[in-house]
Structure formats: C-alpha cells, structure tokens
Amino acid sequence: MAQLVLKERTKRLAGIGQYGTLFAILALIAVFGVTNDQFLTYANFSDIIKSVSIVSLLALGVTFSLIVGGFDLSVGSTASLATVGAASSLVLHSQELLVALLVPIALGVLVGLLNALVTIKFRLPDLLATLAIMYVINGVQLTYTKGFSIYDNMPIDGGTAPGRFIPSFLFIGQGSIGPIPFVAILMVLFFAGAHLFLTYSKTGREFYYVGSNVEAARRSGIRVNRIKLYAYVLSGLFAAIGGIILASRIGTGQVSAGAPLLMDAVAAAYIGYAVFGTGRPNVVGTLIGAVLIGILLNGLTMWDVPYYAQDIVKGAILIAALGLSYVQKKQFA
Amino acid sequence: MLRLERITKRYGDVTVLDDVTFTLRRGEVHGLLGLNGAGKSTLIKLLNGTTTPTSGAVHVDDKAVVFTPAEAIRRGIITVSQEVDDALYLDLPVYENVVPWQAVNRIRPRALKQRAADYLERVGLNIDVTKPVGRYPLSVKQRILIARALASEASFLLLDEPTAALSTDDAAALLELLQTLASEGVGILLITHRSDELSRVTTTATFLRDGRVVYEGPYQALSDGRVHTLLSGTELAHDLEKATPTETVQLEATLTLPTFGTELAFTAYKGEVIGIGGVTGSGKTEFIEALFGLSGAPQTIALDGKRVTIQTPRQAVRSGFALVPEERRKQGLFLDDSIERNVLAIAREGKAVTRVLSSLRVKYDRLNQPVRELSGGNQQKIVLSKWLLEDRDVYLLDEPTKGVDVTAKRDIYELVTRLAKDGKTVVFTSSEPQELERVANRTLWLDRGRWQQKGEV
C-alpha cells in the first residue's frame, strides 16, 4: 500500500515536470513583466532570444551526447575555441565570411572527433574524458592567444591587426530579418532539423537505442561506435556554431567566453528531460529548457542581481532539474 | 513454519492474489508453479517482506508478524531472485558478496575469504574469491547468491528459477544441495518450469492460476496433461508437427571460436531447425556469437552459395541473420523503451507491428508501454518480433525459452516451426534435451567448443 502511495506521489511529481516547465516560463514572464516595465519590450525579448540561441545550441550538443548515453562537458570550451578561431580568421588573417565560418566549424568537428577518440577508442568514462578535453581546449586557445582577446584594430608587432570583424559576419549575431532576429531563425532551423532527424530518420532513432541499451543495440546490427562518434561530432559542431554566434554578437574573440555557458547548457538539457514527462533527453525539451534559463537570467539581471550571484540560482536550477529527471526515471523502473 | 493466511493482494483495481493460504514448512522442498502473472512473484514478495498484504496475515511459527525486508532476513528468510545482478555487488570481490555484513563484527579479510570459500565449496564452486563478481558468468553468480544464503544461515530459502541459467550437471548438483539443506531442516520454496526437477526433488507443490491456489499436493501424482490444465486452465493441444527441411544448403561454414581455440564445421539447410545442445560453458553461445559476428574473429560463411565475411553484428544483420541473444534483458531489449520502439529497432516500416505481436500472442496493454513492465515470456516475444517485420534467412535463437512459462514456450516452438515451413533456417540452442527433441530436425552437441557427436544429417 505504501508503495502504491509512493508511486502515486512519484507520478504527481513527474506531472509537475511535464506541464510545470511551461507553467514556470509563463510565471516567470508574468513576475518579471509586473516588476519591471522594461522586461516586456521588443528590445528585451530580442535580447533574450539572442542569448538563448547561443546557450540552446550548446545545449543541443549536450543533448546529442546524452541521448547516446554519453556526456559532453567540453561544449563551453569548444564554443570559446570557435570564437577565437573566427576572430583570428577575420582580424589576424583578414579572411572573408566563408573562412571565418569554416575554421570554427572545423575546430568544433575536430574536438568532437577527439572526444570520440578518448571515449570510444580508449574507453574512458565520458564525463571525465570530456572534462579533460575541456581543459586541453582551454589551454590550446590560451596558448594560441597568449591569454589576450582578439578585436578590431588590436595592436600587434608595433602596428595594428590587418583585418576586422566584417559586417556580414556581424549580421549573424546582431542582424535581423524584418522584426525577427536572424539568430532566432537559425536556432529554429537547427532545432527543427535535429528534432526531425532524431524522430523520423532511421539513424536518428539509433541514437536512442544506443543510449538505451548498448548491448542490445549492437545485437540489432546498429554500429554503436559510429553512432557515438556522430553524437560527439554533432555536439562539437553545434558548440562551434554557438561559438560563432557568440563571436558575432560581441564582435570580439574573447578567451574563455564560452566557459560560463556550460552550466546553462547542461541545465537546459536536463530541464528538457522533464518537459514531456519521458525522463529522456530530447531536443524540444532542451529548447524549452534553454528558453526558461534565458528568461530567468535576463530577469535576474534586470533585478540587478550580480552575475556572480546568478551562479547560485543556476546551480540550484540544475539540481532541481536533475532531481526531477531522477524522479521520472524511477517511474519507469 | 512460514504461512500466508487468507492473503489478498491488490494493486489498485488489480487483484494479484485472491484469498490465498500457503504454508512453507521446515524441511520440505515446496514447488511453486504458475504461468507468468499468476502471482508467483507477489507471493514471494509477501514472504520476504518486500510487500505487504491488502488483507490477511503472514505467520512465522503460528505468530502473526508484520514483515519488512530487514525483519525477514533477520528471521532467516532468504530470497534468491532471478535477476541475480540486482542482488549482487558486481564490482566487489566474491567473498564480500558471499559473507553477509550482518554476520561480520570485525573485518578480517583473510578469515572472510576462508569462510566465503567454504560456503562456495558447498555449492560446488571453486573460484578465486578476490575477483569481482561481475567477471563471472550467470551460472556462477547464481551459485554465489545461494552461497550467500547459506552464509546467512537461512531457515527458509525462496528460490526463483535457480536452475534456469545452469547446465544440467550444475542444476543436478544444486538440486542435491537443496535436498541436503531440506534434510537439515531448511524450508525451501522452489520456482521452476522444469518438470523433471519438480518430480525429482519436491515434497509438495502448489499451483497458482490467476491469483488463486488451484492445487496443493505432491507433484509426482500429476500427469503432463493435468499439469498443463492446472497451469493454463485449458486442455493440452496436439503436439507440434515439425517442418521438413529442403535439400538446398542455406549456410556452410567453418567457424573459429577464439574462446576455445577450436574450429567448427557447420552446414544448415533451408527449412531446417537445428538444435545445438550442450551444458553451460560448452560453447553454444560462442557458436551463435561467431555466426553473428560477435566473436571478434572474422568468419567466412557461404550463404546461399555466396561467400561473405562476417566480423560485426551489422554485417551479420545485413547478410540476413537474426539473433535472439541469451541474456534477454541485458542484450536483447531496450527495457525503458516502448514495445513499439523495441519492435522497430531493426525494421524501417512500422505498419505491421500489431499484426506481428498478435501472431505471437503477446499480452500487452498498449504499444507505448515500456517492455520492462512485461513478463519474461512476453519480453522474449518482443525480442523475436523485431526480427519478424523484415525477411530474415537464418534465425539464431540462443536459449530462447529460458525463464519463459509453458504457454509462451509453446508459442515460441510454434513460431520456430512456422519459420522453418517458410523456408527459413533456425538454429536453436538449449540445455534441455527434451526440448531439442521436440523442435529440432537434428541436434548437434557441443563440448568445450567441439562437436561431441554428430546427429544424423
């Protein structure tokens, strides 16, 4: 009997997750909207969307790694590396748009391959291996930049840097088409693509099988290692795209710019577990999680909560999201 | 004496046990029979305190007690469940798994190891007690659990299909051990699907059907037909009519088994059911795994006259093989995923899912139900179903009836026969000779990775 009561309670808790996330978003909008008249403005919402787009893409990367049963902690540092790569191409090497996009993307894919190498070939635990890779990447970009940011007209060797952040590159993070920020369109496209891929394509479904039971997946003829490799490469790719948007938005190549995004991204992915009550990582849930976090951080900033204190809130949210996903997992056990 | 007195157990609206009275006496080996869903596991849970009755009482030696799992263990009621991995600390050494922590006041590894080794010897195991349990195969893990029960000086031992994972020899040794324990005054409850075991060791048997006791008395007094009727409530149908193999060779190979360092020549015909027999450790699983690209070594196989090299499961799947692996839950299913997702793991198209499920008589509530909720027999049918949506040429079934009740067994035999009649080749492993005799056109026996005696070709 006690078990039954417990089960009921578990169910109710899980239900909170299912509709609670959407409810929380609406509640936050209401609270922030009432307490601050600047909150419900077009300018502010466009701001929120711009920061959400970056976090959400990193979170999308994390989601791919979570789906196959891995965990990519290197997305923040990959995003940083991508901003440095883009800035370096533009400012130091005077390259055009295409190169400024391809270099960071190639770097992201490379990090993904590296993560795949250590987790799949060397069989290191995902969490620790990608943590180590995170440090390596941080070190690489610090070494390359000697710890300095890359910006227009920066002094080098007596003169100034030859190139600059070109308008077409800046458009990605700052421009808009009509009233809609360009990044919003990008974000929706990537998420729709990822969702369709995971839900309707054979390969996409295999991601879930691998995460659910590796041995059974192998015995069903699924190329388990290849799927994991895809997941890490996609994770690196999306982190790099997030990095590109970040570089374009701030117009500089800042060292470690992506580092604080890691926690937001992980929290968004875990909130995503709860959204549809499945207790599984899923793309749409991740997007909603990223929006929730974006709105919360924006509102807190408007309340003049300092950024360092916001970390406390972020940590607390992550714990709540993890707790909720645990409760939902238990429901199926 | 451990007694359930007029117990009723409901989960929500579902009555799992309905006014059941059951007595387990010291010194008896009491067989418990019933199909999946008849209430066997709930009965065990009531006896070991993991669940409490909705009405009725549990008595120990004529005193009503309210059980918690800890209280049950304190009173010497020890359960050896089917899901051995759930009960073991896989990454800890064997000896720490055998000697219960309750019994240890001070931890002296040497003494502990010695005690563990002594108990293991009683269950016929002579293994390195310092190695982690996870390294050992299922049959060893099972006996480690029984050794643990001995170490905690059980007065009642509840065993859920303890012999399902064991070879015939090991099973015989275990049954003998149970009889010895019973003669020393331990009350033993034994769930098993094997009738030879029941007639050999049980002193009494209880049949459950739909949550009610339908028979209590000696098992030996019952005919096969009567057993079937008691279990299923229906009359025993006519026996299977085997398919006749064709003369066309489907598969020809000399397989390498790296585990044994041996080579096995093997030929199979279209429409043929080949039984592979042998005790645990004889190489049945290794043989199947070699065919399915799981042995690590590349295998050259002539399929339908065409030579293919198979080194990975994917290549095997692409060449038309299907596999029902030995460890269903660990290797065959995505437990938290829905029935539908599991069945669709291989096939691209999902229209025929319900048709396949009903042709196998799978009992389920809804397609998006997690397979974890299904009984063993129905789970096995899900594993089979995923290979039935697309055409396969060779079906490799590794102990497909292990831990499956009689009606589900029949459904599986029927499917095997149907596949053979459609011209498929079925390789069927089992450690039960009667079963192989029943389904296979010919049976090959393995012993340490070599053919023991060739059946007639």
Give the key terms.
heterodimer; A: 333 residues; mainly alpha; two-stranded antiparallel ribbon; 2% strand; globular; B: 457 residues; alpha/beta; Rossmann fold; 2 domains; 20 strands
Describe this structure in words.
The complex is a heterodimer of chains A (333) and B (457). Chain A is built from 13 helices and 4 strands. Chain A has helices at residues 2-35, 42-67, 75-92, 97-121, 126-145, 167-174, 182-200, 202-212, 214-218, 224-250, 261-275, 283-302, 307-332, and strands spanning 155-156, 159-160, 176-177, 180-181. With 457 residues, chain B is an alpha/beta fold. In chain B, strand 7 (156-160), helix 7 and strand 8 form a beta-alpha-beta unit. In chain B, helix 5 crosses helix 6 (138-151). At the A-B interface, helix 1, helix 8 and helix 9 of A face helix 11 and helix 12 of B.
Task: Please identify the structural class of chain A as seen in this structure.
Answer: mainly alpha
How does the major sheet of chain A shape up? 2 strands, antiparallel
Oligomer: heterodimer
Radius of gyration of chain B: 23 Å
Write a compact overview of the structure shown.
With 333 residues, chain A is mostly helical. Chain A has helices at residues 2-35, 42-67, 75-92, 97-121, 126-145, 167-174, 182-200, 202-212, 214-218, 224-250, 261-275, 283-302, 307-332, and strands at residues 155-156, 159-160, 176-177, 180-181. Chain B is built from 17 helices and 20 strands.
